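SEVERITY: medium
COMPONENT: batch folding queue
REPORTER: lab tech (J.R.)

DESCRIPTION
The queue accepted two submissions in a row. Attaching both inputs and their returned structure tokens so the on-call engineer can compare them side by side.

ATTACHMENT 1
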Amino acid sequence: MKKWMISIGVICLIGALYMLPIVGFSERQEAIIPQTSDKNACEIFIEVEGQEEKIPLETYITGVVAAEMPVSFKKEALKAQAIAARTYALKTTNYGKIAIAPTVAKQVFYDEEQRKANWASNFLGNEKKIVEAINETQGQVILYNNELITAMFHSTSNGKTESAYGYGGNDIPYLQSVASISDQTSPKFEAEQEWTLAQWNKLWPIQWQPSDFNRIQLFYNDSGRVERLQLGNNVWTGREVRTLLGIPSTDFTIIFNANKRKVQVKTQGYGHGVGMSQYGAEAMANEGKTAAEILHYYYQDIEIKKIDACLK
């Protein structure tokens, strides 16, 4: 794999094709005018599955931030999201050489048509806010030992982020568990779901009886998430249970409510819990923290630098 040079300087702009759209408003706020550049600009394009054409990197990041983080969040939180999303995209696509899915398995992406539909009459104002966050972080990425990190992020932790080791068994120095207490005020912090026993049994490879719920053993890891669930000789990882049930996180409890004759599962947090908590980032931004301070908190011993796309 070719490595890209990283420089602290401004991204080389000697190139063809337009760069990230800059929001340009008339007095009536009628249009968003794309920024254009010189003919020979060095530019990275991202191939998004389902899109007809490749998309300039910064335009792609605009669509990711709009999809992944509420536009109501503070600009510093949006900037932190932009830097994390840009890093994740370049790492995952090998600087645009591999296509990326626009889904939660990778990064959700909304094109301009989707953003207009979602934001309706407030499209121009929301687009301006997102694009400003992108422009102010243009080209910035997160590095560890001069290599792009795997910049994982999630909506809401259970009060503590998950480590890479707790999630997948691999210890990654910059993905360690940190406190994120403010997540407990997130609207996505707690959830409860119910199933009849018949509905529940359709989801599992075994058939449960009401008495089985008293025999469940849940083993938790250091971040308070379920490492494994054991029922007799049957064992599932917390991640397997989350996928099987479609629940928000791996911090869960399971009971059978005999009065209602239903299985009840309560969860805390939303997402895999690794890396930056988006609601935690918003809380830090509300406290006056900058995007850089947010990223240095959730990713340990990292650097934030600009890529130089001309030094390929």
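ATTACHMENT 2
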Amino acid sequence: MTGGRYRLICDAIMLLVRADGRVLCVRKNAQAEHASSQLTAVGGHLEDGEAVDAAARREAREEAGVDVAPRDQEFVGLAHYNSPQGGGRLGAVFTAQVWSGEVRNAEPDKHEAVVWVDPARPPADCHPYTLAIFEMYRTGALYLSLGWTTEQAGAAR
């Protein structure tokens, strides 16, 4: 057993899925602290006092300008990502195929564009976390462990 209590960032990820199966991504701007100029899934950090499903809906509104009703949101999996820069992140991944509003780049100060991506053939400039989430979504896996060594991941790997 290792040291103290483990603390990590929790991500809330919303895969907005069109009828043709494409998933909405945002392209981070070149000045982004994280994933500069890369495509990422719509999502962000859980805020204090917020439920993770509500956070995913908030992120869809903040990043893509759309509202997802709770009944139109489906939990699809959990991702535990160990960033190369250090520090684990736990991501709760949801999908929605129905929303209100027009998809747009609602955060032009953070994102260059919104892009519809085929999760089976994502572009090379997708962030590795997003690529892994797409693979999890496509295969129906409920859990993803990414960036952990075999020793860190233990028997679950």
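NOTES FROM REPORTER
The radius of gyration is 15 Å.
No errors were logged for either attachment.
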